[in-house]
Write a structure and sequence with these properties.
mainly alpha, AhpD-like, 73% helix
Length: 177
């Protein structure tokens, strides 16, 4: 199971995805930990069993145990936060924004990796899950830490491609049944 296996499974009508997958991972300017943490968190967030199976092993081999766990933690935390904060934002009643969330987020205190890496992974997952408030919040933290727009865009490019590959391959599997 690998990136190459995933690329070879992409149907010809979606060959742009194959090319994009190769470039966002193979030609990324992100440091290895940021890259593979983003890939793993996005593979989890994509909800695609095939994408996760194909990318997890490689991510596990390229990440330290702490970074591997932190990337999974970012995906889990954002699965919660993206629903909560997106819903609060979408409701017409602004009073919900004044209420205490009351949700545990202990991982934020010590994610096990540099805060910038964890924020980047959280931003990428938020892109997949479509939470504008979370995207804005993570982007502000990253920019405040001196992270450039190109790096931030690299993370959400990975999110877009991983999500699209998951949708494509999962739909092909369903259609083949």
């Amino acid at each position: 199971m690998s990136l190459d296996a995933l690329k070879s499974a992409i149907p010809e009508y979606a060959k742009d995805l194959r090319l994009n997958l190769g470039s966002v991972i193979g030609d990324s300017g992100l440091p290895q930990q940021q890259l593979w943490g983003t890939v793993l968190a996005c593979a989890i967030a994509s909800r695609s069993p095939r994408v996760l199976r194909e990318l997890e092993e490689e991510a596990n081999a390229k990440l330290s145990p702490e970074a591997y766990t932190a990337a999974k933690s970012a995906a889990a935390k954002m699965a919660l936060n993206n629903v909560f904060f997106r819903t609060r934002h979408l409701l017409s009643d602004p009073a919900y924004g004044t209420l205490r969330a009351g949700l545990r987020m202990n991982v934020l205190g010590d994610p096990g990796v540099a805060k910038v890496d964890f924020e980047l992974w959280s931003l990428a997952v938020s892109a997949i899950n479509g939470c504008g408030d979370c995207l804005d919040s993570h982007e502000r933290v990253l920019r405040g830490a001196g992270v450039g727009r190109e790096t931030i865009q690299e993370a959400f490019k990975i999110a877009a491609v991983v999500q699209a590959v998951g949708v494509t391959l999962d739909s092909e599997e369903i259609l083949a049944e």
